[in-house]
Amino acid sequence: MPAPHAVVLLSGGMDSATALAVAKSEGFDCQALSVDYGQRHRIELERAGAIAKSLGASRHVIVRVDLRAIGGSALTDEIAVPKDRATEEISQRIPVTYVPARNTVFLGLALGFAESVGAFDIVIGANVLDYSGYPDCRPEYLEAFERMANLATKATVEGRGQLRVRAPLLRMTKADIIRTGMRLRVNYGLTLSCYDPDTLGRACARCDSCQLRRKGFAEAGVPDPTIYQN
Asked: What is the per-residue pLDDT for 94?
């Protein structure tokens, strides 16, 4: 029997890379989907391509949806990326790096891609422990999207299958994610977590995402292969 298809949302960061590795380990034929949404850290798309190849995705597709037209986020607008926030502050409020409805847009694109390739599994690297407080990473949101998807697609309405939104990292700490990735031979040197890298692709070491990444590697006892600006 051929391996079942899964569409994996792949940003180029460590979480989505690990989610791809988990899906591969579970026997899925992984179709990776990245979104060029006008993000200031577009270099992550290059990293996503390298990760997809390294982990054996059978296909990597980049879809362009320019969310700069909507704005409202430090990742798509002329808003400063927060730096040097204390760890306990990071998850207390929704930060300006939240992109309005981003995961809904991404999952909608993944849903369409899944229908086109006959997949009933969508994999996303969402996490609710060591994260920046984004509302569209919560389990109740992912469950609601899954219910909607099963009402909205031809394949499910015709009874050919049930669509599942898989978030294998949902309740892991960053350290747990890194340990899982190391076991599955993820090359974290290919990944980029930074919201504000320089023109050479070096991470800032100061944004929320960099801080969570550094904390995770320290707690996992694994050397961080990231090239930082300082």
From this structure: 87
